[in-house]
# Entry
Amino acid sequence: MKFILGRKVGMTRVFDEEGRALAVTKVAVLPTVVSQIKSKEKDGYKAVQVKALRGKDRVAKVTEFAVEAPGRYKVGESITPKQFKKDEVVTVTGTGKGKGFAGTIKRHGFRRGPAGHGSNNVREPGSIGGGYPQRVVLGRKMAGRMGGGTVTVKNLRIVDLDEEMILLSGAVPGPNKGVLKIFGKGEQAEETVDTAAAEEKQAMERMIEEQKAEKEAKPETKLDREELKKE
# Structure
């Protein structure tokens, strides 16, 4: 599995060879170094622990990637973006934006109560339980902490990359300057094909070829037709 750590810079847009605008996220590549090798015999699972450096000595993030053959990595080895290619599909994991303590309307999309006719239930959550089982049922939608959890986005295409920057199609989780885990298996991005448009184009090409064939078979001028009649 290929993996690297990066820092979200922000979103922008680029243009492809056909002039189409693509929304992309700029991810700055962080210096990633292997810090520990996890083995099945010693740790109970296989993984490679890496750390992202911020400057020379400061550590930005320490995380692990599950790898089938961690033995091919060495402690102190640098992970570079050379392993990735353009148009490769990757998965990105990051910490989503925290929105603090939120009510039921913002957090779960509840309706508000009536604003007139003496009602005081404007943004109240309403009843949270009945007579049985005399407790708040597990999973009840209520006010509480919103956002700030781990978010994973799959099937993001690498639009372009170099030694310092990776451009990913679409949006990635987390705020700007957030550290991201980028990993993948090297699948090539499959372009979506419009089947109806392709069939219509083929039918149009066949019609044009048939018209050309009929035109070549028929005499083009009146003189040609008269000469054919004499013959």
User: Anything to note?
Assistant: The chain has three domains: 1-97+148-192, 100-147, 199-230. Confidence is low (pLDDT under 50) at residues 187-193. The chain is about 20% helix and 40% strand. The first strand starts at residue 2 and ends at 15.
